[in-house]
Amino acid sequence: LSTIQRDMNSMASINLPLVFHFHQPVDNFDHVIESIYQKCYKPLLDRIMDSSVKVTLHFSGSMLDWFETNHPEYLDDVKVLCERDQAELISGGYYEPILAIIPDEDKIGQISSLNDKIIDRFNTTPKGFWLAERVWEPHFPSFLARCGLKYIIVDDNHLRSCGFEEEDTFHRYTTEDKGKIIHVFPINEEIRYLAPWKSVGKLKKYLSEVATAEGDRIILFMSDAEKMGEWGTTHELCYVEGHEGEAPYVEELLKMIENSDWITSITLRECLETIPPKGMVYLPTSSYDKMEEWVLPTPTRSKLEKIRKNFEDGKLLEAEKLDVPRFVKGGFWRYFLVKYPESNNMHKKMLHVHSKYEDFMDVFGDDPGLFKVKQQLYMAQANDCYWHGQFGGIYLSFLRHSVYKHLLMAETQLERLFKEHGTMITPRIHQKSFYCNGLDQILIESEKVNACIDPLDGGTIFELDVKPLHYNLQNTLSRWREAYHEENTSQELIFDTWRKASLRTFLVDSAVSMADFKSNKVSPISAFHDGRYKIISTSEAREDDFFSWVKIRREEIIGDDAVSIEKVIKVHKDKSMLEFFLNASTEGGDFPEGQSLIVDFPVFFNGDPEKFELETEAGGVTSPLKSGFTKTRQLTLRDSTYDLVLEFSFDRTIEVWHYAHETYSRMNTDDYQSKYQGIGIVFKIGDGQISFSLTCNH
User: Fold this and answer.
1) Catalytic residue from among 88, 106, 133, 600
2) Has 224 been annotated as catalytic?
3) Do 559 and 689 fall into the same domain?
4) What is the reported pLDDT for 308?
């Protein structure tokens, strides 16, 4: 029997498609990508070129654009691999969007753009699709089929969610929507955690254990290209030293495949053509397991992490025997838009600009100028800063700035096109559910400025755009509590109770200090800071009125007094200028004794923090990121990188606080950093009334 078993094992074989995914965020720094190229992209491709092993490669459009500009010879080598049938290229969304959250026509537009790029540059037609962050929703087959695609790569977590056992994930399946069929290849989880952290010998052992005499199993080896040389110490592991007793990992991996006649080196297209599907499957809304954990609200995520750790530590033995962890589900990707209001803001701004594009198409039809609009919209849909998990994500302020930059470029281009067709769409006041929460926000739009106001959230300004610079001054990020903050024991962390937004007005005891406010140790006397304000009136600028404006008010009973705060926000119709009026009073007209108003007005600058300047009417210049306070009637802030100057002018001398607004967040697996997210600017007003203007010079 042992001899027969050995003979059967010797006939066993396995199909091993290697898939590498290359992507960098839109507007990432050239020097950063160049470093990754030298450490990872170049040595990986060089070793593939020197071997006979077949690979399936995915490049996002932004990655291809970077190579075309900086290393076109790299793409020439990729084309050589395609010509000798050693490489297959697969498609995706051009700028790596989360397909679930962008309009359907943009899904097709982004995919078609990358299809065309691959055909034009490499003379090959893609049949496979790379799904960004493996965020799947059941309606996807309909539009994927419309784009001429035949298959998609998902996580094996998607199939386990359907009750599949591990061995069931060693095959491809079909799924459909409205009769449109797409083939599904699951990524192998075991290999995802083995490579490159464990030896190639352990990988080979695993493959030998799952190989069969039928030879119809597909073990999909998928890796981010950066994992093969950029992450942590992987450059040394993959190209210099390797594991004990082995050559450097990539060389050892390719050699193992070439020298093992029972391992079939194959592309996914060849799998599609030669190995029949195992059956049909309907996948639930899913992503990979860690993503479903990260998206949860922080308290819930902490609970889930503890449950899973108990499984891993063997504290729930009976549950482990029943494979319960497989059925413990996390959340749903779209919840990032709830978890991070700043992410929702970017997304809804994208939809708002897209609706203007649709309005133009409805009235005027196609126009050559719309190509630039669509390109900018697509770039703003890049997924990288809409979420947070293992890496920086939404905590990377320059990526958020990139999103707003491209959205504002699209918006201003649309306004020019409307104007060329004889229609002015500014100045305009939109009273609409911008957040899609069923409650109205107010958008005051002029030629030079957008001011977006949320009456529900304390009458705050959540977006303030300087349109000629394509620059959102409210691109700050709040100090949200994350599950991993529970691991911190070395310092006291500060978290925000409310989103950082301008004109948030606190009624507080006059003894409140800047240190209290910065550390979020303020106890508001009322709900003026986050309560709902009533919209009293709005007015769009006309020929005889230079300002569009909105007036909002909130009233409360505090003790025996009826107290109200009224805010008026004005936007000049053709200058980068705003005016503000705040008035807090009681029924008798007097401001409450012993109390003050604290008005939060955070500002985001995207330039070099070393070049930020704050100047008062006394003429002293300092860094606004250095905690301090001053009494002044004039306040100037400068971002020299962008030649942006903000000038505040108050109707009288007031106390102004300034400090660096920073978050403490995880930038990668074991790197936690304090990150600049904006400039804290706070006005302290003792008598409950103030008028001031803000002029944005550039």
Assistant:
1) 133
2) yes
3) yes
4) 77
